């Protein structure tokens, strides 16, 4: 047996140090354990967040596809609305044109009856007719004879003045209700320097393509006025040489202007509206037919033909 | 329409267009550009000449030219057209309305001449450009000698190209 010869204090200190070390190690172990738990929890949270991000991205893609589809559907519906609107306006204007034609025919037939019932007027009419027949040969006649014929013609014309004024009056006002029809305008690009302008009129394309066989009517005069407005506009904005084409859009007559090679000056959109407005203001025949015309700016894509026709 | 009424009525735009062998929209264009389109869109017979003058309208043909030396009617048209272009000295920058080239011809001759004009533009004997009064045509400066050779003797590079019309 070993017998201690020294102090017990040293042993007691060493024991205390041993206990402290054990306690410290336990504490560190406990801390490391906690950190490990925290790390695991953080890794799981990160994994969950990644899954959530991926899931949200998938949902987003789905929503974007749905949005695209619904935008396509909306554009398709807008195009259909434009096409249907033009067709309806075209129909309404053609109906009104037929009414105007009937009213003019009635007025002219009544006028012809009155004219033939008036012997003096009828004689004057005959004199005018004879003069017109020989008018192109007058240069070959002696001046005195030519002058006499001309004076006779002028007298006859004066006698017919009231009839001439009446037959050349604006169309008789229709008792019909007022209809509103739209002329569609589109500019490419919609903002900034214009490269192209399209005006679609609610009149059949035949007004342009079949003018030689189609009688002039309200649809034709509306087209003349818009054509005039477009050329006046081009002159005003410094693009009188811009190429102009006439084409069919949704069954209607369209006027297309290429401005890409022109230096357009001023506010093109405002001037375009001013000019078409002036065209309606001058159109007494539209007023007599109780037709109001308005212009509407649309996005150019709405004038494209629908997919598959 | 009653004939007596027709006699009293001023001309419509399409009547003027028929008279001038021009599309009515061109009549409107000419008058609108000159600031002379009547508000009621009706014209006097005297206005027809005014439209002709304002638009630079000319009638180049009374009838289709008679073919020479066994040439086809289409080539006779081409030769006669080249002669007319040179006679009028329509070398750039001078120009004439494109539709002047055809006015006065019967529809089928117009179709044949249109093919010949397309050939002349494609082969760079003629140049086209837009003017305020519409599409205009000129003889290209460098093409005068070749056109003259064809118009006078039926020779030169155009003679070969003309085989295609």
Short key terms for the protein model shown above:
heterodimer; A: 309 residues; alpha+beta; 5 strands; 13% strand; B: 165 residues; mainly alpha; 3-stranded antiparallel β-sheet; two-stranded antiparallel sheet; 48% helix; elongated
What would your notes on this structure say?
The complex is a heterodimer of chains A (309) and B (165). Chain A has 7 helices and 5 strands, in the order H-H-H-E-E-H-H-E-E-H-H-E. With 309 residues, chain A is α+β, with helices and mostly antiparallel strands. A 5-stranded mixed β-sheet of chain A has the order 3-4-2-1-5. In chain A, helix 2 packs across helix 3 and helix 5 packs antiparallel against helix 6. Chain A is rod-shaped, with a radius of gyration of 44 Å. The termini of chain A are far apart. The model of chain A has no long low-confidence stretch (mean pLDDT 91). Chain B is mainly α. Chain B is 48% helix and 11% strand. In chain B, the strands form 2 sheets. In chain B, strands 3-5-4 form a 3-stranded antiparallel β-sheet, covered by helices on one side. In chain B, helix 2 crosses helix 3, helix 5 crosses helix 6 and helix 5 packs across helix 7. Chain B is elongated and about 55 Å long.
Question: What's a concise summary of this model?
Answer:
Chain A has 7 helices and 5 strands. Chain A has 309 residues and is of the alpha+beta class. Chain A has a 5-stranded mixed sheet.
Oligomer: heterodimer
Q: Which pair of protein chains has the largest interface, and what are the residue counts?
A: A-B, 41 and 30 residues
Largest sheet: spatial strand order of chain A: 3-4-2-1-5
Q: Structural class of the secondary structure composition of chain A?
A: alpha+beta
């Amino acid at each position: 047996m070993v017998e201690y010869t020294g102090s017990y204090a040293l042993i007691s200190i060493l024991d205390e140090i041993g206990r402290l070390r054990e306690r410290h190690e336990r504490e560190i172990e406990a801390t490391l354990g906690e950190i490990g738990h925290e790390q695991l929890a953080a890794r799981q949270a990160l994994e969950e967040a990644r899954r959530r991000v991926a899931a949200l991205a998938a949902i987003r893609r789905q929503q974007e596809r749905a949005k695209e589809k619904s935008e396509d559907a909306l554009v398709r519906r807008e195009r259909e609305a434009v096409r249907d609107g033009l067709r309806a306006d075209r129909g309404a204007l053609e109906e009104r044109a037929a009414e105007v034609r009937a009213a003019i025919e009635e007025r002219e037939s009544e006028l012809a009856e009155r004219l033939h019932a008036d012997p003096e007027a009828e004689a004057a009419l005959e004199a005018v007719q004879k003069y017109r027949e020989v008018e192109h040969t007058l240069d070959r006649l002696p001046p005195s004879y030519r002058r006499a014929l001309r004076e006779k013609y002028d007298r006859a014309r004066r006698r017919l003045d009231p009839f001439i004024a009446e037959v050349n009056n604006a169309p008789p006002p229709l008792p019909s209700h007022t209809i509103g029809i739209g002329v569609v305008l589109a500019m490419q690009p919609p903002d900034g320097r214009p490269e192209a302008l399209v005006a679609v009129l609610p009149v059949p394309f035949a007004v342009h393509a079949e003018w030689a066989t189609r009688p002039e009517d309200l649809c034709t005069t509306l087209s003349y006025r818009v054509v005039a407005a477009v050329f006046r506009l081009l002159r005003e904005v410094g693009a009188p040489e811009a190429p102009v084409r006439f084409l069919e859009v949704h069954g209607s007559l369209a006027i297309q202007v290429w401005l890409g090679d022109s230096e357009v000056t001023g506010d093109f959109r405002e001037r375009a509206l001013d000019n078409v407005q002036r065209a309606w203001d001058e159109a007494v025949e539209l007023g007599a037919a109780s037709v109001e015309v308005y212009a509407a700016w649309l996005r150019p894509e709405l004038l494209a033909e629908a997919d598959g026709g | 329409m009653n004939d007596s009424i027709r006699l009293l009525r001023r001309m419509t735009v399409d009547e003027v267009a028929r008279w001038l062998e021009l599309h009515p929209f061109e009549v409107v264009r000419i008058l609108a550009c000159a600031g002379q389109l009547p508000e009621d869109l009706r014209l006097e017979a005297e206005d027809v000449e005014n439209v002709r003058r304002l638009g630079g309208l000319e009638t180049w043909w009374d009838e289709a030219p008679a073919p020479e030396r066994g040439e086809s009617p289409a080539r006779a048209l081409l030769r006669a057209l080249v002669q007319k272009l040179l006679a009028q000295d329509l070398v750039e920058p001078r120009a004439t309305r494109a539709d002047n080239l055809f006015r006065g011809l019967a529809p089928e001759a117009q179709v044949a001449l249109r093919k010949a004009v397309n050939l002349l533009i494609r082969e760079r004997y003629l140049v086209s450009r837009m003017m305020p009064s519409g599409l205009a045509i000129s003889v290209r400066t460098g093409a005068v000698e070749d056109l003259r050779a064809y118009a006078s003797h039926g020779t030169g590079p155009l003679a070969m190209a003309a085989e295609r019309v």
